[in-house]
Specification:
With 66 residues, this protein is an alpha+beta fold. Helices cover 47% and strands 26% of the residues. The chain folds into two domains: 31 residues, no CATH class; 34 residues, no CATH class. α1 runs antiparallel to α2. The chain is elongated, with a radius of gyration of 15 Å.
């Protein structure tokens, strides 16, 4: 499933705040892809040691300085 579609379908139903309903799908579209995140880490001098995707769209990374 696509995270943006999830945000568009669930967004209007669950949160009551109009800002959250609008910002959810926009945040999904502006999020980093796993490859972009790794590229940013390398540019910052970090070496990824562990990474995982959570709930299909969240990412977690453990890194050390290169």
């Amino acid at each position: 499933w696509h995270p943006w579609l999830f945000a568009k379908v669930i967004g209007p139903v669950v949160p009551r705040n109009p800002l959250t309903r609008f910002d959810g799908p926009v945040s999904v579209l502006r999020a980093y892809t796993p490859d972009e995140l790794l590229e940013l880490m390398h540019a910052a001098g970090l070496t990824p040691r562990w990474r995982a995707t959570l709930l299909g769209y969240r990412m977690a990374v453990l890194a050390t300085r290169a």
